[in-house]
Every structure is written in structure tokens, then in C-alpha cells.
Amino acid sequence: MDRLALRSAFSMRRIFGMAIPNRDGIVMLLFRRLADIRYPRRKSCAGARGQEGARFQCDRLPCHLFYATGPNDARFLRWRDALSRPERIQAVLFDMDGTTVDSEHIKNEQLARLLRSHGADVDAAGLAHVSGMDLQGLLGAIQAILDRSHAAARAADVLGSSPYGREAPYLDIRCKPIEGAVEFIEALRAQGIASALVSNTPSYAVAIALDRLRMMGLFDVIIGGDMLEHHKPDPEGYVLAMRLLDVPPHACIVIEDSAPGIAAGLAAGAYVCALDDGSGSLDLSAAHERFSSYADLVLW
């Protein structure tokens, strides 16, 4: 096991007095603030499984190409098409909201309610496009909605006045696992394939969601947004997960449901599959594959 992962595991054991399982057990939950862990900010990661001393590179260019020119840019498509489906899958890396946890509609309802209280004319459906955005992207999208509604409020002030904590959507009784996700991940583990969760959501809210939904034991590595300097579409989260799992990018599949997440997975060098809810509200065209339910996704 990676020395960094061991250090975090022992730190968590001291803090919570709990057993921290390994790859054959349950999960290593990493909290920077609690364990005071310093993660290396490197674009290359060492130790590809089965290749002692090997290194694999993460090229940050594609995610910037994606947002500068869109998913149909020839350079971006060449990068994507060069990434083929792994012959031997060693790890599957999942997003959380909308991919493993059915929480996006709840988050959008709460945000729409907040925006309406500040004079914006918007409903939950009108916020579907903000899925997967980091804070800066979300602020820009909210400001555009406020401007269209001729509301005087500023996006930062609106979010700052929110009565909802980041954990609020996961405490809603309607929040549940995405249909088929639990069974799919259990099948992966039965095949000896590692799993990780990588989210922009703060780790304390991730922990609340997974604990409430009894999904904590499904993942070998869990990474929250407060453990990272750069959020999706930057690939840092996926690169860190690959390093902790000790798996090279070409042996990984990323499962996402948003354009920023897809860009992050591609920029990390992984093969990306997108869960399409059929609404057409999100551009998932950059993914290698799209599937409508976990029952339709065949990886082995």
C-alpha cells in the first residue's frame, strides 16, 4: 500500500479509534484537515502497478482545450481518440453526485429556492447545466441567471447567505444511490477491480452521504474537494486516486455525468464513460462511451 495512504489510515485510526481496512477490506477515507496530510502537487505519478519504477504522465492541456474550444475541437478529439478502452481494467473511478448518488435534483432545488429568494426567475430544471462545476464556474453561472432576471444581488453574496450546508442534499430523505450503482461496484470488487470516488464536494459531506446511504465500504479510496488544490475539470483528483491505488491511467476507467468531470478524466489519461440521464441538458459528447443505466454498462 502507498506510504501516503498508510499514513492517512493510521491518522484516521488515531482520530476516530476505528479500524481502517485495506484493499481487501473496506475503504481508506482521507481527510486533509483532520490528518494534516500534505499531498504532492505533481503532474506525474510514480509506481504503475506491475511496472516497478514506471511513471505515467498527466497532461493538463486537454481540459483547457475542452473549455476554450468545446468538445468538437480537433486537438481535443485526437487526444480523446488516442485513449482506448483498457484491455485489462485495474480500477474504476467514480464521480459522486449524479453518478453514484442521486442528489443533483435535490441540490438544484435548494439552489433554485435560494436564487428565487434573491429575485431570480429560475427553477431546478434551469440549473441542470451547473452540474459538475467548480466554485468559480458556479459563481459565473449564478451571476448570469441573476443578471438575466435583473436581480441586484451578486452571486457570491447569494451563496454566502445560503441556509443550506454542503451536506444538506444528502440528508434529504429523497437522496439515494443511483439505481444499479451499488450492485455494479460490488460486481467490480468481486472481479478484483479497485474502485475510487473522486468528488468536488468537501470530504465531510462526502462522508455523510456515503455513511447515510451505506456506501462507505464500496470504495478503496475516497477523495473530497477540500483535499485538492484544483477541482474538475482539472485532473488532479483523478491523478491522486490513481496514485493511491497504484494503477496507471491506461488501466483505469472513469465514470462521470458532467462535462467538467469528463474533461478531468480524459486529462488524467483514463477511458471515460458517461452516465446519460436522457434529459439532454448536459453535453456528454466528449466521453468515449455513454450509457443510460449501470445495467447497460459492460466492462468485462
What does this structure look like?
The protein has 300 residues and is α/β, with parallel strands linked by helices. The chain has two domains: 3-101 and 176-296, Rossmann fold (3-Layer(aba) Sandwich), CATH 3.40.50; 105-171. The chain is built from twelve helices and eleven strands. The strands form three sheets. Strands 1-8-7-4-9-10-11 form a seven-stranded parallel sheet, sandwiched between helices. A two-stranded antiparallel ribbon has the order 2-3. A two-stranded antiparallel sheet has the order 5-6. The longest helix has 14 residues, at 3-16. It starts with a helix and ends in a 9-residue tail after the last strand.
Name given to the CATH homologous superfamily of the largest domain? HAD superfamily/HAD-like
The gross shape turns out to be globular
CATH class of the largest domain: Alpha Beta
Mean pLDDT: 77
The overall strand count is: 11
- Radius of gyration over C-alpha positions, nearest whole angstrom: 19 Å
- What would you say the CATH architecture of the largest domain is? 3-Layer(aba) Sandwich
Number of domains: 2
Taking pLDDT < 50 over at least 5 consecutive residues as the criterion, the unreliable ranges are 1-61
Strand share of the residues?
5-15%
Our measurement of the CA-to-CA distance between the termini, rounded to an integer number of angstroms, reads: 26 Å
**Secondary-structure element pattern, one letter each:** HEHEEHHEEHHHHEHEHEHEHEE
Number of helical elements: 12
Under CATH, the topology of the largest domain can be stated as: Rossmann fold
Largest beta sheet: strand ordering: 1-8-7-4-9-10-11
As a percent range, the share of helical residues equals: 25-40%
Query: Tell me about the biggest sheet?
Result: 7 strands, parallel
- Give the helix/strand class: alpha/beta
